[in-house]
């Protein structure tokens, strides 16, 4: 949503994504140059989309990350 495109399989139909096993083969997230995003945002997104399930955050872990906490 941040970049206005899918993190994996951009430009492919859902059928192509499934047939070509795009998500199963997506080992990392590639970030476009624009819009510029902070290193903290990139790290947060990468952890949410980690390839290995044991490395990927669940919703409670993601919600507790300091990146999402309100700054006062």
From TrEMBL:
Name the Gene3D superfamilies for this protein. Answer: Transferase(Phosphotransferase) domain 1 (1.10.510.10)
What's a GO cellular component annotated to this UniProt protein? nucleus
Has keyword Transmembrane helix?
Answer: no
Q: SUPFAM superfamilies from the xrefs? A: Protein kinase-like (PK-like)
Class of this enzyme: transferase
InterPro entries to which the protein is assigned, alphabetical: Kinase-like_dom_sf
Enzyme Commission code(s) on record: 2.7.11.1
Q: Which GO terms describe its molecular function?
A: ATP binding; protein serine/threonine kinase activity
Q: Which UniProt keywords apply?
A: ATP-binding, Kinase, Nucleotide-binding, Serine/threonine-protein kinase, Transferase
One of the protein's GO biological processes:
intracellular signal transduction
Task: Indicate what this protein is called per its UniProt record.
Answer: Tousled-like kinase
